[in-house]
Amino acid sequence: MSDQPPTPPEQPPGWAAPGGGSPSPPGWGPAPTGATPPGQGPYPPPAAGQPPFPAGGYGPPPGYGPPPGYGPPPGYGPPPGYGYAPYGYGYAPPQNDKGATTALVLGIVGVVCCGLMGPFAIWEGVKSRRRIKDANGALTGDGMALAGIILGSIAIAWMAIAIIFVLVSASLSSTSGTSQ
């Protein structure tokens, strides 16, 4: 260890050590003439006898504003705020037809539980598809109505197969018991 202080790091060209009065960094020119020193605003101080500017600087000076008696005309409220547009602006999104949902539910119930719901699912699905077609895009749910028709048809087919199976098994059991 030596008694010599450590050497400062090497400075880039054009820069000087702190406290030295060397030129500005590269790309920076001399300070503009007439520039305000740091900590002072760009405006001169108020003249003698004038109050200083308010700290916020917002709003009209005291004594200014709308004259009394002005505001919205009688019978009118303030302008609408944000939220939904007033009536007559934009368009309503298409609504799902309730009959299509009913047809789908009846078709599912007909397949799962009771085949007797199949004809009602077909009937409601056909009515719903006709309403959707006549609405020109204001109603949706054509796929659900079609699914209700298909499921209703499957329910009817299973019910028909079950009836045929019961009739055949009943006729076979009755004929086998009489031929002894």
Describe the overall structure.
By secondary structure, this protein is an all-alpha fold. It is built from 3 helices and 2 strands. It has a domain at 95-175. It has a two-stranded parallel ribbon. Helix 1 (98-112) runs parallel beside helix 3 (142-178) and helix 2 runs antiparallel to helix 3. The longest helix is centred in the last third of the chain and has 37 residues, at 142-178. The protein starts with 94 loop residues before the first strand and ends with a helix.
Order the strands across the largest sheet as they lie in space: 1-2
Total number of helical segments?
A: 3
Name the structural class.
mainly alpha
Strand content: under 5%
Strand segment count: 2
* Helical residue percent band: 25-40%
Note the gap between the termini. Answer: 127 Å
Which stretches of 5+ consecutive residues score pLDDT under 50? none
One letter per element, helices H and strands E, the order comes to EHHEH
Rg of Cα set: 45 Å
The shape is elongated
What summary fits the major beta sheet?
2 strands, parallel
The average pLDDT is 77
What features would you highlight for this structure?
180 residues, mainly alpha, two-stranded parallel sheet, 3 helices, 2 strands
